UniProtKB/TrEMBL annotation:
It comes from the Bacteria. The keyword Transcription regulation applies. GO terms for molecular function: DNA binding; DNA-binding transcription factor activity. Residues 1-58 form the HTH lysR-type domain. It comes from Microbacterium hydrocarbonoxydans. This is HTH-type transcriptional regulator GltC. One of its GO terms (cellular component) is cytosol. Keywords: DNA-binding, Transcription, Transcription regulation. PANTHER family: HTH-TYPE TRANSCRIPTIONAL REGULATOR YBHD (PTHR30419). The gene is gltC_4. Belongs to the LysR transcriptional regulatory family.
Length: 292
């Protein structure tokens, strides 16, 4: 028994005649007929009643039809899995991250994939969370590391990686340095130092300020947390970052923001039917210490 014989059998069933089946598989009518007859001899049953104008299935043919369909479907799954595996070797992986991302585990995972599969074309680009999630929905990227406050677009799966309290960082001589907490309303009149739109801390800050009913643009918008530290240390404003981000900073004081929703959240998003390369990256990231 050969796979093409099963394909010809289904072609006759689906098209109703040997002639139409031959046209669909681009083989001569006699070739299709001969292969189906060979299949019948190997199985020891008659599959078609050839006395009718159409190729009608016999009772045995009817019983075998779902088995043949299932067998060819299983073969298709094997081929799909093989294509997926081959795609990991010679395919591509497109990853988008928010600007200034400082998450070593992502870069460790990308390095591991590159080392294990040097033929995999890995691309990395930055953008805002909105841009990244939109590109992911359109199929223009495979994985996005982004922030979101509302629900993500339909068709995407997500996992939160960081969920940290939002804090204000100020110089030791700043009036807030001795405070135990700061009310969100107080931030409205401060010279804020913030990361770019789309980062976890900035998304949380924008949501916090929007809840006050006023729109406030940060005085300083910088690309990396180190810039926030350098500006805040010199007393040039109030930096807004996550508690983990500033954990090792020595030249500033971190003051909690007194609001339950003042949290910086960042996560991974991917499409519901990920490629093999995407699944491989997600598996590496799942084992990272920060993931939770």
């Amino acid at each position: 028994m050969e796979l093409h014989q099963l394909h010809y059998f289904l072609a006759v069933v689906d098209h109703g005649s040997f002639t139409a089946a031959a046209d669909s598989v681009h083989v001569s009518q006699s070739g299709v007929s001969a292969q189906v007859q060979k299949l019948e001899r190997e199985l020891g049953v008659t599959l078609f009643d050839r006395s009718a104008r159409r190729a009608a299935l016999t009772a045995d043919g009817e019983r075998l039809l779902p088995v043949v369909r299932a067998a060819l479907s299983a073969v298709g799954e094997v081929r799909a899995a093989a294509d997926d595996l081959r795609g990991l070797v010679i395919g591509s992986l497109r990853v988008g991250t928010v600007s200034g991302l400082a998450w070593p585990s992502l870069f460790d995972a990308l390095a591991s994939l590159h080392e294990a599969h040097p033929g995999l074309d890995i691309r990395l680009h930055e953008g805002t969370s909105e841009q990244l999630l939109s590109a992911l929905s359109r199929g223009e990227s495979d994985v996005a590391v982004a922030a979101w406050t509302e629900g993500v677009p339909e068709g995407l799966e997500t996992r939160v990686v960081f969920d940290d309290a939002l804090v204000a960082v100020v110089a030791p001589h700043h009036p807030w340095a001795a405070r135990h907490s700061i009310r969100p309303m107080e931030l409205l009149d401060a010279d804020l130092i913030a990361l770019p739109s789309g980062t976890g801390a900035r998304t949380a800050l924008d949501a916090l300020l929007a809840a006050s009913g006023r729109t406030v643009a940060p005085r300083w918008e910088v690309s990396t947390p180190s810039f926030v530290e350098m500006l805040a240390t010199r007393g040039l404003g109030v930096g807004i970052v996550s508690e983990t981000t500033c954990a090792g900073w020595t030249g500033v004081r971190a003051v909690p923001i007194g609001a339950p929703g003042a949290r910086s959240r960042l996560g991974i998003a991917w499409r519901t039917e990920p490629t093999y390369a995407t699944r491989a990256l997600l598996e590496l990231l799942r084992a990272s210490p920060a993931a939770r």
